[in-house]
Amino acid sequence: MNRLFPRLCLTLAGALALAGCAVGPDFRPPDPVSASGYTAAPLPARTASAPGGTGAAQQFDFTGDLSSQWWTLFRSPELDGLVRQAVRESPSLASAEAALRKAREDLRASQGALLFPAVDAGAQATRQRTSGNAATGPSDIYNLYNTSVSVSYTLDLFGASRRRIEALRAEEDHQRFLFEATYLSLTGNLVTTAIRNASLREQIRATGDIITAQRRHVEIVEAQFELGAASRSEVLSQQAELAANGAALPSLEGQLAATEHALSVLTGQLPAEGTIHAFRLDSIHLPESLPVSLPSALTRQRPDIRAAEALLHQASAEIGVATANLFPKITLSAGYGYQAV
């Protein structure tokens, strides 16, 4: 024992030293591209104000952070309610959230299976009967009980388990960034569609007013033509303008219907339900301050870029798993059982 104990300690120390290292590349995120601005010319400090004083200039804020609920900058209660409904009812967002939950549960299951010993216990009870003969004696009926427990653990000498968990953690990050990208895409499409819906309603209203005014003007020109105060070409010119504006009205109405259907789909409804609020431009207010991200921080704020980086991290960890599988695996196992009548 005096000779075996130092050897056993040395063997255990060597195993622990090997367990502290993992083969394969250690992932390092790519360095972001350095940029001092979005355009060659410096951006102005504010936007141009609308002509006639109908719209104030907006300030660019290069130091503020944009809130995750960025649509609240428009100060529209109807828009806020529509976005909340879309976040609650959208099937695309629900699908992305389910994929994220699956990735998290896969990571937890793998951590339990790879980092901790596997324990298996069982119990069995049987009723048996032996046939009697001259050699064994009379027949006998008895109960047989069997209990057993076994423990096994695979030593992670070359880091295969740790690299596998690293890959699963990168997959969880990938699904989380995809969920964020789906969230941003949903809210962005919803807000832009709502603003376009309000814009089309104003265009339809203005086009209707123009058609009404032009129809009256055509009647006046036709009356002047009957009295000889206007030429036939003037009448035809006014009728052509009236027909052109009248032909544009159905196209605008079709675009308005398309935006209403898109809003229904984005909020998880059927277009036939027709419960979308009719937006108006005067209910949507432009924000006074526009937060602008710095170019150096933009790559860390975009979930699509972070999702691609997570896939790169997962591929790097899988290389470590494949490299570790080239080496032997050592599994320690023990079992104990008891059997009695």
Task: Give a written overview of the molecule.
The model has no long low-confidence stretch (mean pLDDT 85). Helices cover 54% and strands 13% of the residues. Strands 2-3-5 form a 3-stranded antiparallel beta sheet, with no helix packed on it. The chain starts with a helix and ends with a strand. It has helices spanning 4-19, 77-89, 91-115, 160-227, 232-266, 295-298, 303-324; strands at 59-61, 118-130, 140-155, 289-291, 330-340. The radius of gyration is 37 Å and the shape is elongated.
> What spatial order of strands do you see in the largest sheet?
2-3-5
Binned, the helix content reads: 40-55%
Strand content: 5-15%
List the secondary-structure elements in sequence, H or E: HEHHEEHHEHHE
Work out the radius of gyration: 37 Å
Low-confidence parts lasting 5 or more residues at pLDDT below 50?
Answer: none
Summing up helix and strand content along with how strands pair, one would put the structural category as: alpha+beta
- Determine the mean pLDDT: 85
